[in-house]
Write a structure and sequence with these properties.
2 strands, 69% helix, elongated
Length: 87
């Protein structure tokens, strides 16, 4: 594993295998976007990873809502306040 220095800090060199069609697509994107191929690959991976991380956070949030609703049941805030006053 080779570590490289670039503008954003240390990077790791990876060798990947892609189809001829994907290679042509990558070349096209590189030309049209005026960016190095490695930058295009990096940005696409980061973009997709952000999507997955967002989905994971939303799922975790929904689980906490489910746990919280099980603790209080199907009561409104007003009902909970009334119940608190009764204690």
């Amino acid at each position: 594993m080779a570590l490289l220095n670039n503008d954003s800090g240390l990077s790791v060199r990876k060798n990947i295998v892609i189809s001829n069609e994907t290679e042509n697509d990558l070349k096209l994107l590189s030309e049209r976007m005026n960016k190095p191929q490695s930058m295009i690959i990096r940005e696409l991976i980061e973009e997709k990873a952000k999507e997955f991380k967002k989905v994971k956070r939303v799922e975790a949030f929904k689980k906490t809502i489910g746990i919280a609703s099980n603790l209080i049941g199907n009561k409104t805030i007003q009902e909970l306040k009334t119940q608190k006053d009764d204690v």
